[in-house]
Protein: ABC-type antimicrobial peptide transport system, ATPase component
Amino acid sequence: MIVSFPDPLPMLASDPDPIVRLEGVTKVYGMGAATVHALNGIDLAVPRGEYCAIMGPSGSGKSTAMNLIGCLDRPTEGSYFLDDTDVARLTDDELAAIRNRKLGFVFQQFHLLPQMTALENVMLPMVYAGIPSDERRDRAAEALRKMGLANRMQNKPTQLSGGQQQRVAIARAIVNEPLLLLADEPTGALDSRTMREVLEIVDELHASGITIVMVTHEVDVARHTERIIWFRDGRVIHDRLTPEEMREVALGQ
Structure:
């Protein structure tokens, strides 16, 4: 399905300067009686090149943590360093630039623009990055070829299956060569066969050296990762579960 990826980057599992570092991060929504503490002073680090999953029951804080890591929200208290930059101190424009240059996003619902072709959807992040049009087209076409969609570039999302749409979304996420890929329930809208195909693609991306953080509630999906981080009540309860240990923890919650 995937043609090729660049040579793997060094896998720095013991990296003293991780790509993601949250220190004492708290996130509070609302005021007074309506106050919700979504995160309660969490510390979390993700080394470069790691493939990890964030799991936990509904309301545990995992989605809030993903939003903060993805620079879609800011902590109420604490610090978040992304690639050595304290992003909590950046302006909205600076955050948007960080998201475009350093982060790739894959969501459950694909979020493709229906009026655009697959090629045009993949080109879109490069428009915001100011990349010349010829280079945008070449890079988008190459990303779609890597996803096995060379013959679907001119199709619009409604002309594609769910699995094909997710592969277009993945191509869009990696076309700017991000340092970190964030996947939020990326297989939640897929059948089991298509889920396996998409996970094979994500596995290949990890093998090429991309750091991946995935939110999932599915045991079979989490088994593809190297480390599982378990959230509950806005706290990190376990920060280094293996896939083998995870099922027992999940059953005990």
Observations:
- Residues 1-14 have pLDDT under 50 and may be disordered.
- Residues 22 and 80 are 5 Å apart (CA to CA).
